[in-house]
């Protein structure tokens, strides 16, 4: 069972669902999918027609690549995080490839975090959430969205934008991961700015995340935080400010973040942190991994899983 109906049928809040999945799979690793059509696994294009629109052909190869990657590493991970832009740049066929990746992840029992960093006024935020985790009611019947289990969101247009996302995600049992302190070097340009009242901007956002998650009745909130693994010195402070938020921890591997430096993320328990790795898993063979791309990716995912599990 996939899609929004599979999410809603659980009857569980997102924090509880993450806890259940982490315990069942004994993993806190999230596979990031940001496919580059020029760097797909060998064989991804074998079934692609020799002619036809370029977008359709590229998207078919991307879909085959994503299915192969997910199948290879599924036993070692708990979730998949597709980067929406990497699919959307291929137009309508790219959206179909994204849907195929989500379906493959659900078939392997994995959660899906749609990474688009959405954030807009109420009407647009509602549409984004319906597109990714919910359904859109129309006079012609309900139109299902992508069927993701969570989405990422930018908070800089204000709390009302996040509230509009939550109005859709909460009834679906889905989650929202709000950008708090991200993994890119440019995060310092805005997120680290000192406020007039003291403290960096990201601390203010962290307090908002904690407040939005209160009262949902779960041990872990359905409002989580994107916390860059490239600045581990901030993780302990973030855990103080957001004691029950699930941390989504991008930047492990290719961006230089290390799972071993993120121990405070798991203070609430094994499901408190989800460490995300993309290129370091998918391109493990290119980076000196042993064996086929699938074998090297699986080995790297297992290494990360063991490292994270030992900290929890």
From TrEMBL:
One of its GO terms (molecular function) is orotidine-5'-phosphate decarboxylase activity. SMART domains: OMPdecase (SM00934). Pfam families: OMPdecase. InterPro entries: Aldolase_TIM, OMPdecase_type-2, OMPdeCOase_dom, RibuloseP-bd_barrel. It catalyses: orotidine 5'-phosphate + H(+) = UMP + CO2. GO terms for biological process: 'de novo' pyrimidine nucleobase biosynthetic process; 'de novo' UMP biosynthetic process. It comes from the Bacteria. Keywords: Decarboxylase, Lyase, Pyrimidine biosynthesis. SUPFAM superfamilies: Ribulose-phoshate binding barrel. Its EC number is 4.1.1.23. Residues 28-300 form the Orotidine 5'-phosphate decarboxylase domain. Pathway: Pyrimidine metabolism; UMP biosynthesis via de novo pathway; UMP from orotate: step 2/2. Belongs to the OMP decarboxylase family. Type 2 subfamily. This is Orotidine-5'-phosphate decarboxylase.
């Amino acid at each position: 069972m996939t899609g929004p109906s599979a999410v809603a049928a659980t009857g569980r809040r997102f924090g509880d669902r993450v806890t259940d999945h982490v315990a069942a799979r004994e993993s806190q690793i999230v596979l990031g999918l940001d496919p580059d059509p020029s760097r797909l696994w060998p064989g991804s294009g074998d079934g692609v027609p020799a002619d036809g629109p370029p977008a359709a052909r590229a998207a078919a190869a991307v879909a085959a690549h994503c299915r192969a990657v997910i199948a290879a590493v599924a036993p070692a991970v708990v979730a998949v995080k597709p980067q929406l832009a990497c699919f959307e740049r291929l137009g309508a066929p790219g959206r179909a490839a994204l849907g195929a990746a989500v379906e493959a992840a659900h078939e392997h029992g994995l959660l899906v975090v749609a990474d688009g960093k959405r954030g807009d006024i109420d009407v647009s935020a509602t549409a984004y959430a319906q597109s990714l985790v919910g359904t859109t009611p129309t006079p012609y019947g309900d139109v299902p969205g992508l069927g993701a289990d969570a989405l990422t969101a930018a908070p800089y247009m204000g709390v009302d934008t996040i509230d509009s996302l939550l109005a859709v995600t909460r009834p679906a049992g889905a989650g929202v991961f709000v950008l708090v302190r991200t993994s890119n070097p440019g995060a310092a340009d805005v997120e680290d700015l000192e406020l007039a009242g003291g403290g960096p901007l990201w601390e203010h956002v962290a307090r908002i995340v904690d407040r939005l998650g209160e009262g949902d009745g779960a041990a872990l909130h359905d409002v989580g935080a994107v916390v860059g693994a490239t600045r581990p010195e901030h993780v302990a402070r973030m855990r103080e400010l957001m004691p029950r938020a699930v941390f989504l921890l991008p930047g492990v591997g290719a961006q230089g973040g290390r799972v071993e430096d993120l121990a405070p993320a798991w203070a609430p328990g094994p499901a408190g942190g989800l460490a995300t790795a993309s290129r370091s898993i998918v391109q493990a063979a290119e980076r000196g991994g042993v064996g086929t791309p699938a074998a090297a990716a699986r080995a790297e995912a297992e290494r990360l899983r063991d490292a994270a599990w030992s900290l929890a």
